[in-house]
Amino acid sequence: MSQLPPCPKCNSEFTYEDGVQLVCPECAHEWTEAEQAEAEAEKVIRDANGNELQDGDTITVIKDLKVKGSSAVVKVGTKVKNIRLVDGDHDIDCKIDGIGPMKLKSEFVKKA
Ligand SMILES: [Zn+2]
How open is the CA angle 42-44-49, to the nearest 5 degrees? Predict the structure, then answer.
């Protein structure tokens, strides 16, 4: 018997296959294994050292970063508190003291 993954919504272990879909009998959630793998892959955002980042983390900038549309620069070593992970090329949303709301790339930061 193949082991099916638990329901990503309610964690029920009573999931069953219906064609290509997986179905949860407890919360009626339907999904495919491909969708689930994609969702899980997207969740992990790593810093320059390969450490996993999470919402609310404090990070340090490891490279001078120009702020788009201004002459300001976020200097190496700038600490940024309470980051929020987002989708996209710039995957960190945050607010930097003295500069304001900004988006950063996870490859240019490390977890503090
Ligand atoms: Zn469920």
Answer: 135
CA of 52 to the centre of ligand 1 (A): 27
State pTM to two decimals.
0.63
Calculate mean pLDDT across residues 61-82. 93
Among 30, 51, 28, 55, which Cα is nearest to 111's? 51
Cα Rg, the chain, nearest whole Å: 19
Triad 50, 55, 60: Cα angle to 5°: 55
Q: Residues with Cβ within 5 Å of ion ligand 1?
A: 7, 9-10, 12, 24, 26-27, 29
As a whole number of angstroms, the distance between CA 70 and CA 47 comes to 25
Give the model confidence (pLDDT) of 39-55 as tens digits.
777 678 999 999 999 99
